[in-house]
Amino acid sequence: MRTARTAAALIAVVALAAGCSSSGGKDDESDGGSGGGGKAVDTPRLKIAMVTHSGEGDTFWDIVQNGAKEAAKKDNVEFLYSNDKEGKGQAELVQTAIDKKVDGIVVTLAKPEAMKSVLGKARAAGIPVVTINSGAEFSARFGALSHIGQDESVAGEAVGDELTGRGKKKALCVIHEQGNVSLEQRCAGVKKTFGGAVENLNVDGTNAPGAQSSISAKLQATKGIDAVVTLGAPIAAVSVKAKEDAGSEAEIDTFDLNAEVVKRLKADEVGFAVDQQPYLQGYLAIDELWLYRTNANVLGGGKPVLTGPAVVTRKDVPKLEKYTARGTR
Which CATH number among 3.40.50.2300, 3.40.50.10610, 2.30.29.30, 1.10.287.110 corresponds to the domain 152-275? Predict the structure, then answer.
């Protein structure tokens, strides 16, 4: 498993997570099924909301939630989750959290301008905010304590390097949500370092049959595409089917990891995947807000806390299978 510019940050955050997992207090009656600690703290009960730009039927966000729930269990936190793919809807959900007088908010900034005003309201209400996953460059500007996730440009560059190393010449970068700044940054990063040509294709990620048809048609119409880069695990599965429909020999590669992607890596249906460790994003965001509320701690020192990227291939499958099966990778 190869990482890009993340080793130091990952060592720090994993050490933090491990240290907090042994906090004293009452015994947790559950068995920590997702692999976390077995004790809960005895600090006052907190209420923390997480509002994301996606989540419906997406295994990535299930993994984020698994991490957040494990930290919430340990930290004596009531965890409230909601999502809306539209920026306006996401902002309204954040306002609902503010109205509930939550103790902290975790939010994504895929469509940052839609979130600017409401995060200002959170700040005015004295509610600390941690951003995760997308929009790192807007996090501090909008008053968040810190940002937890991968640098999307760096992740894209890692993919470009990997494609070049594999001898690819023409790549199709599939954007499944128009207007999402993180997805655009990924494709731009691929273009920056890839030695071949890159063309973007916009599809509707909420319409799998439509996305499959669009990718298949593109593969049939454009000769020479030897790599399809998808920006989310569910679209990788769609692209494998589209490749079969088109009779294409293109390699399918993807951002993000789940159990299905690991199975496809094992079957050589996917060449490689880029893991940004969503479990860690959810876990650390809740943990940071708990630490801030109980000890005034802030992660990152003004810089994003990186959880990726890591390029994983078929050789990494044996050590990943058990983790993806339980929903922690």
Answer: 3.40.50.2300
